[in-house]
Amino acid sequence: MIITLMQNLPLLANILETSFTQASQRQLKPRDYDIKPSTLLYGGAKVGKSALALFVAKNYKKPIYVDATDWRLPLDALFKFLPSFAQDYGADLLILKHPPKDSPLPTLPTLLIQRDTSNTPEGFKQQAISPLSFSEFVHFCNKDPAALLARFLKEGNLPEMLALSSHEKMLKKQALFTLEFGAQTPLFKAILPFQAKSLSTNHLYTQLKKQLKISKDTLYRFLASLQANQMLLSIPTEKGYPKLYFYDFSLPYTFSYSHPLPPVFENMIALELARFFGLSTLTSLSSVLRIQTNQRAYCFLPLAFPTQEQLEYSLPLLLKKIPADPLFCISLNPLPFSCKLPCTLCDFLTFCLKILPTL
């Protein structure tokens, strides 16, 4: 039975009046973003796009929140009713989550939430939302950073997962990505072992087709969709073949007990750099991550557990291959030795919380 718009009005008014209060009952914390109206927030699953928009909306008197993924909503009727309701209600901010393509927007300060930027309205700024940096993770958990490092490394950086136990988090992630990718979930799992590896899409396809029945077009489309919402970061290298990093560096642990630590740690460093300097400034050069901006350039060497002998042998060779930029060698834990070569040794905590903010 089709319910007319007039019959729906009381229901729609009640939904719009209460939706923000209901959605914002969870704990909301600030992020390192300066969000203004007329902004499209986009990014991968569970990075906290909605939570960030709801936190921003707490500074407004009468915000409205519409989650267009809620199957209970009569969207056609709701979008017809929304402009008049917003005016009568005195709404001062609208949050629209995954609105249908070409949905009309009322003349009201608006935040849009989408997976990618494909349907950005004219006049809207695009803002990629990333998972938590380590400093944000420390702020969210409000505990000693040293005590949080092992948890961060193992469980990842997705803010929507923080309240779960370690075991629950793994199962929740498995269910999340199975729902997210559907029939493509085996393909997603097969890509995870290539974390922090430099290879062409054709080479990746050659490796994947040994275990999956896929076409090259399917792989190209899937990779493009992952890059569009920044679940997969493709970093340029001097070889011409990009390095692959994931928006949650711990994803390989979600589907494997035996994934090695070094690529996870390298992914961690890459995300911290991309978040602080911007993704477009990041490249990979001779095993180091390099940042190049208009004003400065730095090189960063992620080595989870370096030995003094390893550094004394490998660093002189490396320094001949890379530009004469300041070099930071980043280990997982503090090192019990110093280095006489022209580089700065630092552990992950010191780098993220003390050094990076000063660069």
UniProtKB/TrEMBL annotation:
Keywords: ATP-binding, Nucleotide-binding
Origin superkingdom: Bacteria
GO molecular function: ATP binding
Protein name: Conserved hypothetical ATP-binding protein
Organism this protein belongs to: Helicobacter suis HS5
